[in-house]
Amino acid sequence: MALKKWLDAIQNEKLSKLAENDVGLKSLEEKRLNHDKIRKWEEDEKQYALGLYYKSPKAYKYLKDSKGHALPSISSIRKWVNVLNLKAGKNEHLLKQLKIKLEGKCDFENDAVLMWDEMSLRPGLEYNLKEDYIEGYHDLGEYGEREPHMAKSVLVFLVTGLTYDWKQPLIYFPTSSPVSGNKLTEIISDVLQITENVGFKVRHMVCDQGATNQRSVTKLGINKDRPFVEFQNRKVTFGFDVPHIFKCIRNNLMKSDLSIKNETVSWTAIRDLREIERSKPCKAVPN
């Protein structure tokens, strides 16, 4: 605990020295001193404050509360972040905020894995008062027209950190039926470019073994001899979701035996072993 406080004190001291020479912060404070303090924050001021907050919320709070810098309140920051009105397909405001957040990050912090998957939805409609339209229909955004069929699932694209623990949904599509292989291939290619424009460096892609996913992966030129795509002068590797592979093996094994090199693998043997070990302290098959 003492070490953590000491490291925080060193970090705060460094931040104070940086803040003294920060042109953006000085400009923001001068504007506040020369204008009515109750006026609304201007867009450039909001973007600067958001960028500072994204780099380190703790540092932002320190500069505002401990050093007395004229910065927007934390509640204002949170309100601006929560204003996002997301729709199916690309959301430019979200991408803009992500780009601000990634500025100043080290390259390895932005190394990411691109994932996509479908999740089941309970069909239902809801009126969006702000945008004056009804949500809940099949909608591929800019990749197709809205259809008068209630969505039963949602296709979500998400990026997650390769070396750092973070994740961020990027794009979603409510669907009433599976997206075609050709359309999914087009979306994957576009999402790769979107992530690059924002500041992410996708190093790997993951999805399950659904039929549409397999067709799309094949169309991208990925196979067992070439498990990657060339993008922005680098190789972006690909792999099917390992937990999903294990689940598929288990499900198939529960239905029928598996023959490997004249040897039979049976679910019955696994079940019998579990029963034998049920009362033993050391187990080969965990509960």
TrEMBL record:
It comes from the Eukaryota. Residues 25-80 form the THAP9-like helix-turn-helix domain. Residues 87-221 form the Transposable element P transposase-like RNase H domain. InterPro entries: THAP9-like_HTH, TNP-like_RNaseH_N. This is Transposase. It comes from Nasonia vitripennis. The lineage of its organism: Eukaryota, Metazoa, Ecdysozoa, Arthropoda, Hexapoda.
